[in-house]
Amino acid sequence: MTDSNSRRKVIEVKKSLIGPAEPRPRNVRPKRLSDFRGVPAAYLQIAQKLASPLAMGPPLSDGLVAFVRHVFTEEEAALVRHLGRFRGHGAADLARAEHLPLDQVEPILRRLSVQKRAIAAGGPDDKRVYRLMPVMPGIFEMVLIGESPESLSPWHRRFIELFDAIYETGYLADYDSGSPNAAKSVRVLPLHQVIEGHPAAIPADKLEPILDQFKVFGVGHCQCRMAMQSLGRGCGKPLENCTPMGQWAEAGIAEGWLREVSRNDILQIKLDAESHGLVTWVINAQSTRGQASCSCCGCCCHAMRITREFNVPSIFAPPHFRPKFDDAECTFCGKCAKNCPMGAIGCDPRQKTRRYLPERCIGCGLCVLACDRKQAITMDAVPDYQLPYRSSFSLLAHSLPGFVKTAWRVWRERR
Predict the structure, then answer these.
(1) Pick from 306, 406, 402: nearest CA to 362
(2) Domain 33-133 -> CATH class
(3) CB distance 115 to 146 below 8 Å
């Protein structure tokens, strides 16, 4: 399970051993502001904010500054430099800060928030406020979600190249807290074919009860696979399966960067994605305002690659189900190892041995579908499984202490 870029192997085959590729080394090289002589101050101010550990940002570097200079024109950067991540600023605030007339500022902000989608906007039109998003998750996803492979402009393609250069440094591995009890923001739903009829399954394991909470559904293109396709490293799997729901979908539909679909459409989209070996995740909270889901592959998904390529725990919550192997039925063919998107299984067909890495397992069930021996692999419920958070607020409250501690550590290490 590889692609044209040898650095991005999902699974390696060495002699008879089938298993996860060796972790990639990180290549993070921080710089200081004094290293960027001649760069306009507005760009450096934005880069500093995006580099903040509180935004899970990459360190200040040539790549980050190049990314900022591409995303924002000098005119846009002069306004964006005043934005914060948490406190919103209105157009009038930004106009005063830059000593510009309001009617000159408002079109710039609309272009940034609606056309480029490079900054966040919220609230009614007469009280709309703007915020600076992190590089990821944030700017990368929002800039691309409203695009398709056919609509990508040269500007978008360069945006993808510059983001990829930042991601490839492995900087996100800096934010591994090392704690198994750290809050996880997303969880994987087991494949429909695997969980259907399982006696231990609960509503939270299935997509249908989640969809029943909402009336509005939107769909956009998977940003990760589209980016990899643009770079010539795509896997060819379906793209249009990124699905915000409820209030999270309404703005995108209204602005035209999401296609409105029905509940049944979403179900069909997700079943089709599963048939292509993609796994479905949702936000790990029982929110009634909104929800989001994407269908991911181990070779392109940036969240999954954090674990698979850099060997650090990912953002995925511990699964409700994990594979159980029956050695009496298993032929040690290695198909389960070859099809695991997280590299959680290793197999040596000659020695008839297997290695299972539970810390990498997301409980998707692809290994079960890959096995052609009846009952050689089944999915067993994890006894101490923790239910999703009751609300987005609960998820945030549980995450905050560990997040701040990790941000403090990263800040000290980068000084």
Answers:
(1) 306
(2) mainly alpha
(3) no
The pLDDT of residue 1: 41
The residue extents of the domains of the chain are 6-25+174-402, 33-133
Give the C-alpha separation, 381 to 242, whole Å.
28
How does DSSP assign 209-273, residue by residue?
HHHTT-S-EEEB--HHHHHHHHTT---------BEEEEHHHHHHHHHTSSEEE-HHHHHHHHHHH
Give the chain's radius of gyration (CA, Å): 22
* Token pair 């997280």: residue: 342
- Among 5, 254, 28, CA closest to 146: 254
Residue 412 phi, psi dihedral angles, 5° rounding: -70, -40
* pTM of the complete model: 0.88
The predicted structure's pLDDT at residue 6: 39
What one-character DSSP code corresponds to residue 315?
S
pLDDT at 92: 94
Q: Estimate to the nearest angstrom the gap between the alpha carbon of 258 and the chain centroid.
A: 18
